[in-house]
From TrEMBL:
This is soluble epoxide hydrolase. GO terms for molecular function: epoxide hydrolase activity. Residues 28-133 form the AB hydrolase-1 domain. It is an enzyme of class 3 (hydrolase). The keyword Hydrolase applies. Belongs to the AB hydrolase superfamily. Epoxide hydrolase family. It comes from Populus tomentosa (Chinese white poplar). Its EC number is 3.3.2.10. InterPro entries: AB_hydrolase_1. Epoxide hydrolase involved in the biosynthesis of cucurbitacin and mogroside tetracyclic triterpene natural products (e.g. siamenoside I and mogrosides IV, V and VI). Cucurbitacins have cytotoxic properties and exhibit deterrent taste as a defense barrier against herbivores. Mogrosides are nonsugar highly oxygenated compounds used as high-intensity zero-calorie sweeteners; they also possess pharmacological properties such as regulating immunity, lowering blood sugar and lipid levels, protecting the liver, and acting as antioxidants and antitumor agents. It comes from the Eukaryota. Pathway: Secondary metabolite biosynthesis; terpenoid biosynthesis.
Length: 335
């Protein structure tokens, strides 16, 4: 499939962005936004499926990843930078489309939430996977909260000091790190104690690949992360508090685009940080008032678009088909 995908390098927002594109030139665009530690490649199944159904699939490597530039400064990886990249990319690849469909996963979901928050005029409808909208709490910074709840060995907290976790990953080996992340199926947070493997396992514990992840897939990811390193992707985590500061003007703001949210019941994000309560007690619907569908897939882990590609592609197609005309407007926008 990959050989039939067009690969382009586009200069926007001061950096060169690699983007994979497939589908009819003037078809409605679906922007696919990947997470960590992934690449455009994580959408390979959806690119094939949705382009064959009449959409134009556009999947970039985000800044710091794959064949896209990786600015050296940690501060160059805020939500404002990445959303700026996505807007600039859309201006080039979809110049005649006022708004596009968006699909995000993991950090890509977080960026897609912010794209919809900052520029709802550019998002026709959104399908987000795995990571819920996380409204800004004006009284609590992110990292201090995570340290208070989970301690210093919690993976996000271990990612904070530049160079430290990179050295640990170098000791483990790039391929092993990729395998550990992509095969993680424990419905609980990840802890990375110094000198040990994931959740304290011995470093030499073998990793068995599931049926949905091939050695060829792992080799593609490994080759790109060996070239680029993990620092660009880790820098997203290192900007959590900076994002908290920068997004103060949007405190209390809602996501005002139509949304479908899909998560696996074995996903670590669904089983931590109060995610289930946030959904069950109405917080999610309050903050995302145009939430139309919420799907919890049984027996599915975090990397849901790779683990269940056909089901996810169908969910995306069925939802976006509702908005194939321009006749839908949220009630907030009708005068």
């Amino acid at each position: 499939m990959a050989s039939s995908v067009e690969h382009r390098t586009i200069n926007v927002n001061g950096i060169n962005i690699h983007v994979a594109i497939k589908g009819p030139e003037n078809a409605p665009v679906i922007l696919f936004v990947h997470g960590f530690p992934q690449l455009w490649y994580s959408w390979r199944h959806q690119i094939e499926a949705l382009s064959s159904l009449g959409y134009r699939a556009v999947a970039p490597d985000l800044r710091g990843y794959g064949d896209t530039d990786a600015p050296a400064e940690v501060t160059s990886y805020t939500v404002l930078h990445v959303v700026g990249d996505l807007i600039g990319l859309l201006d080039v690849v979809a110049p005649n489309q006022e708004s596009v469909f968006v699909v995000g996963h993991d950090w890509g979901a977080l960026m897609a939430w912010h794209l919809a928050l900052f520029r709802p005029d550019r998002v026709k409808a959104l399908v987000n996977l795995s990571v819920l909208f996380n409204p800004r709490n004006p009284s609590r910074k992110v990292i201090a909260t995570l340290k208070a709840v989970y301690g210093d060995d919690y993976y996000i907290n271990r990612f904070q000091e530049p160079g430290e976790i990179e050295a640990d990953f170098a000791e483990i080996g790039t391929e092993k790190v990729i395998k550990e992340f992509l095969t993680y199926r424990t419905p609980a947070p990840i802890f990375l104690p110094k000198g040990q493997g994931f959740n304290g396992k011995p470093l030499d514990t073998p990793v068995v690949l599931p049926s949905w992840l091939s050695e060829e897939d792992v080799k593609y990811y490994t080759s790109k992360f060996e070239q680029k390193g993990f620092t660009g992707g880790l820098n997203y985590y290192r900007n959590l508090d900076r994002n908290w500061e920068l997004t103060a003007p949007w405190t209390g703001a809602q996501i005002k685009v139509p949304v479908k949210f899909i998560v696996g019941d074995q996903d670590l994000t669904y089983n931590s940080l109060g995610a289930k309560d946030y959904i069950a007690k109405g917080g999610f619907k309050r903050d995302v008032p145009f939430l139309q569908d919420l799907v919890v897939m049984e027996g599915v882990g975090h990397f849901i678009n790779e683990e269940k590609p056909e089901e996810i592609s169908k969910h995306i197609y069925d939802f976006f088909q509702k908005f194939s005309s321009l006749s839908w407007f949220p009630s907030c926008c009708v005068s």
